[in-house]
Amino acid sequence: MSEAPVRVCLAGATGLVGSAILREAVGREDVRIIAIARREVALPPGARMELLVGPPQDWPALIAAARADVLVSALGTTIRSAGSQPAFRAVDHDLVLATAQAARDCGITRMIAVSSTGADPAARAFYLRTKGEAEEALGKLGFHRLDLVRPGLLLGSRAEARPLERIARIIQPALDPLLLHGRWQGYRSIRAATVARAMLTLCRETARGRRVHEYGAIRALAQRSGD
Question: Which CATH class is domain 6-224?
């Protein structure tokens, strides 16, 4: 008798990584995606998934209704898209934590969150400091297992235009061969689909602890996807 699929509550299904997770989950029998979103999302062809829609203030009830085994947070924006640093922090810190707390309140003990290479609560850069502070706060919520996924530049098609990212995606492949070793490896570009496959692999991991996954680990996890 086959094992029951892992029930995955996905927050951030409309973003680059979230939408990649939806696509990569199609046809898989080991995971069942229940996405939480502010608006309707066009599910990929062949998807056997649930979508629960409501404003963020209703998400605690939606997360509880998902009856999930693990929370996956692909929430995130940019300062440019958000319009200001406070608006950016409201998503990448406050909403991430509120979603995580709602998951803990309804008994979810595992979480996987997309963060960023260089995330550090002591970083000078506001973006990386916010990411680091969010990681630090998530670590205090009492998840039995917390996986922090830290990609560098994400490659893939976004719904919204990000001019600086478009330029970076052109330049980055030429720089990647130079970022082969040590702490610089984490800054290599990586496809959102690769990150999505890695996160789906992590959905099946149950050993306790807090783990950080950067470029090499993300690629290794993606290769295990579907095993």
Answer: alpha beta
